[in-house]
Predict the structure.
Amino acid sequence: MKLRKEIIWRMLLFLVIGIVAAAIFSEVTFRLQGSSSLRDPQIIQLVIPPGTAAKVAQGQSVIPAGQVFVVGDVLEVKNEDSVTQTLGPLVIPPDSSASMKLDQVGNLSYTCSFQPTKYYGIEVQQALTFGMRLEASLLAGIPLGMLLGVYSLVVKPLKSKVKAPPP
């Protein structure tokens, strides 16, 4: 009975170690990637600067070809150019702005007038929550901890405290 209790304690110890190790590894890699989906929805402004239409006509790109958003973001396009610009369903006259709410996950490609390619890519991601990150740590940490526990029994087996009868 004592041997069983020692095995359970060892497995629990390595289970905790596995979960903590997985959580640390997950957080470090998450931070190194610089994920833009770890934030609350907000208003993101895209400014079309003056002279954009002339530069696009020459084949020059003035604005990056796409952006990453989280569900619930509002994309506000402000046109500072002297020409009416378009982005998908938005028509933005000079010195005005228009906006659209991004409420579904997906990769969108809108036609636009402020890119030489005439397309603007929008990636909408689900915002990461603490619960999602905790779930990922548990899904990786539990199997890791169990494997570490089993390996520990192989590397350093428990000794039975039963004394052999004298010969």
Observations:
- The chain has two domains: 2-34+129-155, 43-125.
